[in-house]
Amino acid sequence: MENQTYILKNVLLETGFEYEDGEVVKTKTDLFCIEVEDGKIKNIKPNDAAIDAIDAKGRLMLPAFKDMHGHLDKMLFGLPWQAVSAKRRTVKDMIAYEQKMIPEWLNTSEERTGRMIDFLQSYGTHFIRSHVNIDPTSGFESLNHLEEVLQHKKKILDAELVAFPQHGIYYTHTESLLKEVAKLDAVGFIGGVDPYSVDGSVEKPMELITQLALDNNKGIDLHLHERGESGIKTIEFLIDKAMENPPLKGKTYVSHAFALGHLSDSEIEKIAERLAYAGVGIVSSVPFGDTIMPIPTLRKYGVEVLIGNDNIQDHWNTFGSGNMLQKAHLIAELYGYSTEWQLSRTLAFATRYILPLDDNGMQQWPKAGDDADMVLIAASCSAEAVSRISPVKSLIHRGNIVF
């Protein structure tokens, strides 16, 4: 169904909070009819179960999900199962392996990327920020293949692309390729990876990345796995650059930023305040084990924290579920967000901060005029959806019913 006018009936929407002794103990809901026209929500009316309309069957309507860190161009999804090798321990080990395997992977990348997108969408994702390899082995082939797939999916999926010099900028002589790709309209962000450990310097690759972003009106999204001094130095470099160059504010991100998970409480408070002031965000796949990211502290200071699946099935990791609701659930478990109010707020990590109710329980989504980007879920409220990782029954992107 494409850009048609239609009505959904028996749609469950959140309408407010129910309080007991000052505590939110329940989320109020009611059934509505939702009229969609030309990719927008046109009207929201009291429910009329008797009308001729698409029956949502009492399922909860929530904002569609956004996966803010993926690698659609080089997942091994669709190939025979292969676990991670213990022999490849460092980023440079991975670079060598990719240089060997990329020519083979490119042969089937378009078909497998399409299947990966279908998989992510089955969990309610309608928007993906994808890093795409720019390196001497693949040239622009990874980008071209991904663009071809996204063109076919454009009616049911939005994406933004990060030019990702996965093999280092100077380590594998990728500088000229990165300069060329930075000029393309298809690319929204300039990426990078572990500048000190891969390229041997924080300053040299970071100067190039920030200058390319400024010269071409792009954002920055840097992979930073490094812990310790070099990791913090790189984050501080980006903070300084964003403060010196206002166009970078709100468009600069550090993905992973594991160094932040190894600071003292006072150190993380200090750097969180600087990140927020500079408009530098953090993108996390929500690791756990020996690195627990200080997401609550970052949010307390107003740092934009974006969440993504990162690896689904690839040579780096095979544990990604592809489910953004599961990521929100993981955050709730890790940080002890167990009350009705806390769980309802945690949904924000799956939707990039679009929530049906504001912190005081006032209805703020959906409104007439909003993009018709939504999911229908078998749950009674946001809190239950996050806690139980409730199944997604339907995805609608810009009014187009994906399933």
TrEMBL record:
InterPro entries: Amidohydro_3, Metal-dep_hydrolase_composite, Metal_Hydrolase, Metallo-hydrolase_Enzymes. Pfam families: Amidohydro_3. It comes from the Bacteria. Residues 53-403 form the Amidohydrolase domain. This is Amidohydrolase. It comes from Danxiaibacter flavus.
